[in-house]
Amino acid sequence: MIRAAVLPLVLAACSAAARADTLYVSDEGDNVVHVIDSASLKETGRLDVGKRPRGIALSPDRKTLYVAASDSNDIAAVDLATGKVTARLPSGPDPETFALSPDGKRLYVANEND
Q: What is the mean pLDDT of residues 76-86?
């Protein structure tokens, strides 16, 4: 069940990997990102991304979802075509949220206690 206190929703724009009718919802209680069909509001999948997922963002090409995994102390990069974590980017302790540069080459991380 998706909790009422879930963190940010990301509405993905059109592409083969992430369609406009897909929502990604981080759920730090269940340690997953829920994949939701926006028309039916039904869960269509779950992405295992690490402990206590928080902030999320799509890459400029809409093929990768980045997720701050606060208790894993990293940013998970998820290939949306496969639903698999392809990289874990070091973030320092307890990443809360981040900004992705427009070209997708840099992440600027905000750590909760720093």
A: 97
For the range 74-82, what are the long-range contacts, defined as Cβ-Cβ under 8 Å and sequence gap of 24 or more? 74/50, 75/107, 75/109, 76/49, 76/50, 78/33, 78/47, 78/49, 80/17, 80/18, 81/16, 81/17
* Residue with the larger pLDDT of the pair 12 and 68: 68
pLDDT tops 70 at residue 105? yes
In terms of C-beta density within 10 A (0-12 exposed, 13-18 middle, 19 or more buried), how is residue 38 classed? Answer: middle
Write phi, then psi, for 40 (nearest 5 degrees).
-100, -15
